[in-house]
What does this fold into?
Amino acid sequence: MNSVTRPVTVAPVPLAPLAEELRSGTLAIRGYVESSLARIDAHEGTVKALLPEPGRRTRLLAEAAALESSYPDPAKRPPLYGVLVGVKDIFAADGFETKAGSKLPAKLFEMPQGPVVSALKRAGALILGKTVTTEFAYFAPGPTTNPWDASRTPGGSSSGSAAAVAAGFCSLALGTQTIGSISRPAVYCGIAGWKPSYERTSREGVVPFSPSVDHVGLFAPDAAGIALAASLITTGWDAAAYSSASGHYARRRPILAVPDGPFLAQAESAALEAFEATVARLSGSGFSIVRIETFEDIIEINERHRRIAAAEKARVHSAWFKEYGSLYAPVTREFIAKGQAVDDNQLELDKAGRLSLRTMLERMLEEAGADYWISPAAPGPAAVGLDSTGSPVMNLPWTHAGMPTLAIPTCMHVQGMPVGLQLAGNFGTDEALLALGQLVESCLAVPR
It folds into this structure.
């Protein structure tokens, strides 16, 4: 299960050391951009993570030169100086069209660049380009393949963002999650993915899917890179809480809870075997593990969440769908039709279940004396074929509750493909969760 050799298309470059090398000048910004573009030239024909952009090389080299001219003193360079970032094609970004993975006219999605993209640019990041998304961040896939195996899905809907980071095209990418669109592609591609607490990152400047459950998050090769970028885009980021948690967890391992029952049973047997092996490794590294029977109503939770997503998608797309309905993929048309059948009373009732679920999960942790939930980040490895992006059921309840999650790769593989661990914390504990993620990665000796 563990003896797996990475294909040449997999080469994630950890963000934190890369950013330090660029800031210090140890790595020249032009050389970094050139080498990244060379890697794209070599592998993008297979991976297909990026939207085509004529003149990408000329633009990036000009932007790199301008950045270098603006910051000749390494001591004054911003934290992401020169770092390339992939932007999922539902985000507005100055100078780029937004198509949202669709056939609809791009003019429909014109809007000002939002705070998240602006924050990364202020921090010195250079936009590598737009990354492929499924149509309107739902299930109709784009052309992106999995860097581990081009015959397999990279997951979705943030397909291109996850694949671009895994392939070494960039070390940071933006994604969104409405059900499982960050966590699932992250572990399918063997990298880390962070879904923040609901509304701790801005959704402005993003084509909405379902505003009540949409989350804007990040991909990076590891938790340390996620933490670096998260500190720049998170509302009210608490550096002291992050530092305190890092020190505290180094001295005392937190108690981790496994949600036994119908939720866990949704995973495939091989993925469960890999998960239990990971749990055993964590236990051997000093973590206390408790098992809690929960999610007896997981089928109801799944249905409630999907009704919210469908109903709000139908409302978001009301005018567009009326005029351009024939241009939508069949799976998206079907989902919108489902949402049109959900009345406002049902929608409000379903939305109320989000807080109820969050309260229940946080109470269960407290009663068990535990600190975080752990579970598989996907039901199994990335499936063969590109017609489906895989099932998000292992991510759904945490998205529904708006609780922060971090998906990280482990040393375990199934069918030669990476599988990962999903950490979930109480609402608002993003800083501590990202500190925990780094400790877990070190205990699992995740290769880089």
User: Anything to note?
Assistant: The chain has 15 helices and ten strands.
